[in-house]
């Protein structure tokens, strides 16, 4: 499949939000995964604003990226925050400038083994609802074409999210995002529980959770809750067996 064909497929995938069982967490993870794939990054993390104006980490391709996103929010510095504030991409920043602008974030990303970080806004016209960090283990620059592709992915995802929200009423939007945040907490707990029970890494544990949710047609949050209370032990073991 050519890159153009793959892009077309991904755009269709990200535009498909008007379904009865739309899962915000799974959708945002898909965005981070496809962005890593198409922009040749090594990891990605995404923050989204809630109805009260608070930013939360809602998706990442690896647990390491999630931790860096959380660090960025806690330290109140980093390209993703600047990107969200300005609504503009923060890319191809010289390493010396990174250290000068975000010293604590630069130290954390370097310690994690990353040498380049780019940030793209999730925006529609003047409305910015979040931002996505791309982490690279080598020094890398996004070309104009890469930047266009990355921003287009983020824009399409934003349109999909806002369109899906518009279909529902404002009260439901707040409830839906709060439910997503609650699910995120359950998912993080379930990753740890599954990793401890099976001896696999937390990233692999999330892959198992997500694969089971998709194959069973259940929401990620519901699967996570079942893992935590132990009611999915046998099914998770079977999923692990099939993935080996």
State the order of secondary-structure elements, H for helix, E for strand: HHEEHHHHEEHHHHH
Count of distinct structural domains:
2
Shape: globular
| Major sheet description | 4 strands, antiparallel
* End-to-end gap: 27 Å
Give the CATH superfamily of the largest domain. GAF domain
Do you know the CATH topology of the largest domain? Beta-Lactamase
**How many helices does DSSP assign?**
11
Structural class: alpha+beta
Number of strands: 4
Mean pLDDT over the residues: 86
Give a verbal description of the structure.
The structure is a single chain. This protein has helices at 3-15, 24-39, 63-75, 79-86, 95-101, 103-111, 144-167, 170-198, 202-216, 220-228, 233-243; strands at residues 43-49, 55-60, 116-124, 127-136. It folds into 2 domains: 3-167, Beta-Lactamase (2-Layer Sandwich); 177-243, Arc Repressor Mutant, subunit A (Orthogonal Bundle), CATH 1.10.10. Strand 1 (43-49) and strand 2 (55-60) form a beta hairpin. It has a 4-stranded antiparallel β-sheet with strand order 2-1-4-3, sandwiched between helices. With 244 residues, it is α+β, with helices and mostly antiparallel strands. The model has no long low-confidence stretch (mean pLDDT 86).
